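Summary of Year 1 activities. Much of the first year was spent building the evaluation harness for sequence design. The harness presents a backbone, in tokenized form, and records the residue chosen at every position. We chose the following record to illustrate the format because it has been used consistently in internal testing since the harness was completed.
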């Protein structure tokens, strides 16, 4: 399976500076999913996915906001 090259835009809510980096994924993450860019790293929740099959340098843009992983796990498990 060919890895998908994705341009990932990460932000901390309320801040103005985006972190913009390319990553390779087995599949393109979907809105509402979580991602981490390194082991034991921060978690980000995907808010927007722009698929770009016309672009040779990437398959999609992803916009994600940093979340508190402990709080996200608690919310999911205590429903």
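For this record, the design step produced the sequence shown next.
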């Amino acid at each position: 399976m060919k890895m998908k090259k994705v341009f990932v835009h990460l932000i901390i809510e309320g801040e103005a500076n985006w972190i913009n980096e390319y990553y390779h994924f087995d599949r393109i993450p979907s809105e509402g999913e979580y991602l981490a860019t390194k082991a034991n790293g921060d978690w980000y929740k995907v808010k927007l996915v722009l698929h770009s099959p016309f672009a040779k340098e990437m398959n999609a843009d992803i916009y994600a906001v940093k979340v508190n992983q402990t709080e996200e796990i608690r919310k999911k498990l205590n429903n």
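The chain has a mean pLDDT of 92. Quantitative recovery figures across the full test set are reported in Table 2.
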